[in-house]
Amino acid sequence: MDERVREHAEILVDWSARVEPGDDVVVSVGPEAHELAVAVAEALGERGANLLATYSSGELQRAYLQAHDGEFDEADHELALAREADVYLSLGGGRNTSATADVPGEARNAYREARQDIREARYDTRWVSTVHPTRSLAQQATMAYEEYQEFAYGAIIRDWESLAAEMDRVKEILDAGSEVRLVSGDTDLTMSIADRTAVNSAASVAYDSHNLPSGEVFTAPAETEGEVVFDVPMTIRGESVRGVRLEFADGEVVDYGASEGEDVIGDVLETDDGARRLGELGIGMNRDIDRYTDNILFDEKMGDTVHLALGRAYDACLPEGESGTASAVHVDLITDVSEDSRLEVDGEVIQRNGRFRWE
Amino acid sequence: MDERVREHAEILVDWSARVEPGDDVVVSVGPEAHELAVAVAEALGERGANLLATYSSGELQRAYLQAHDGEFDEADHELALAREADVYLSLGGGRNTSATADVPGEARNAYREARQDIREARYDTRWVSTVHPTRSLAQQATMAYEEYQEFAYGAIIRDWESLAAEMDRVKEILDAGSEVRLVSGDTDLTMSIADRTAVNSAASVAYDSHNLPSGEVFTAPAETEGEVVFDVPMTIRGESVRGVRLEFADGEVVDYGASEGEDVIGDVLETDDGARRLGELGIGMNRDIDRYTDNILFDEKMGDTVHLALGRAYDACLPEGESGTASAVHVDLITDVSEDSRLEVDGEVIQRNGRFRWE
């Protein structure tokens, strides 16, 4: 086994999920993530945790959703599993990142809505999402396989504690601030962040961070006003999306457009009321992610980018007892802020053209 | 998709597991059983059942067991899943039938023992085990891949109702009988079957039958006396086992030997008290299984064979409220009865040299 696979598994289990002896762990395995799953199983065995592996395949999902009449029940067995789990590790990795591309948005949304309780129960665990670098992810990134492995392990196997210290500076500013303004090209957007708590997302549940790799500081904005254009291309639900433009009034999307994939954005916005509000404002700070690879897990952490998510807000950002944006979706969109851009907090510029004011 | 894969899935879901709308179904997927899993997902979607797929990999299992200190907890999350499930479909199929060959029997047994409640909960569902015909199963059978597919689908995709009618004749004799005697070569074994109910194992939960393919009539013997030699070769726990000889007194194994794999038999016998008793006497009646393929799912149903299992008895064979052989194991051993053999029930020969008395 490639030693990097074992290091990845150890960072995931120890740094990210803080697995303890006796933890009930669900490991969700993509069809091509087998090798990482073996390394994770070994790490879980060593730490005396209990392992249940689930199988997460886009092709299975597609076959099921295509055949179903769309009147979904919530699955009691899966809910019971999620409620009893202490840790949920998602090891993404399939053969085709477009495996569910032809599933109608309607079926997808109905399925997601029926599974709200399962999702909430999963969010109550120490959950972490990662990916095994596969050939299909390399292809999505338009990179050679070996080159992609180098890139992915570079972003994952790193000194997380020192990045956490850097990111803490941004968190402190956001925690103290009330209003954020993002200006960049055609974008001019203001959001309230009063009473919200920023997350220093250092790829560990100890930091309320649930992605590996991570490397972003994010919070949950409110009262969004203005217009934003997302110039980083993306694939959402298997479809290419380019040049998304959102216009907000009173915190809600009131107009939208896209140079490509406008239908997908429309599907997302129609999921539920929360899907038309922002659930997240994030600032990418992992400079080992130095290129766009068309994978949100990496792209949103890229240095010199800012992203916003439609839909669900993370509880960690909200005041105790307050429910932020509730939605069945959480769809991130990214904008490059390396040029002609500034990010202001309460009128003070904290980042200009990708450089923080202390740099 | 090969149309046989779809037919296999439909027989599994409809004939075998009797899936209904709203059923909570667990589908356990082997790493090479993906294609069958896709067809099963499609069938479950069509029938409006709820699907959770688990990942069943020998390599994962091995990594976990090798790394663990051997003090296993029962996994509460997996237990909750099993208790809430209505249906449990196991789709076997890996890359290497010896994937766990170097896991010590001790670790294996400790793991199995810790999971007794999970196993019992699973047996309370409409559970069915099948396999996707893989290259590794073809290799195990010393057959070409295409040839093996022909063989496997021949045994699986068939008229189960007509075989059920044939097998009912044998069930009636066993239900009415009190004592079975098996004589064949060096074998001379008597077993009590008084008050036991035989199962007409027609590959459907409607017949208390949980294997696809099936095609055997089995019951739970007691008070076993005598000696039996199993001349059909087998692979147990990844190891080759040949010429097993068991000697019984007062229902328990008092002496054993094997020309190959004696250690494995020793490991099995030491699992617990129940592992030294017989849990099953089965008569193979699926004549489409016309050759030995070193896979118990098929071999034990072969025409002209009789098999006995050490360990766990099936509740369906036992009088209401009676607990038969309780054990963490159920290990089948097979003997050829096509020549120089007879099977007697209460002194009357019902099968001689593989032919039933009415043939």
General description of the model:
- The structure is a homodimer of 359-residue chains.
- With 359 residues, chain A is an alpha+beta fold.
- Chain A folds into two domains: 3-156, Thermophilic metalloprotease (M29) (Thermophilic metalloprotease-like); 160-356, no CATH class.
- Chain A has eleven helices and 20 strands.
- In chain A, the strands form four sheets. An eight-stranded antiparallel sheet of chain A has the order 14-13-10-6-5-18-19-20, with helices on one face. A five-stranded parallel sheet of chain A has the order 2-1-3-4-8, sandwiched between helices.
- In chain A, a hairpin with a 2-residue loop joins strand 19 (348-352) and strand 20.
- Chain A is globular, with a radius of gyration of 19 Å.
- At the A-B interface, strand 1, helix 2, strand 2, helix 3 and helix 4 of A face strand 1, helix 2, strand 2, helix 3 and helix 4 of B.
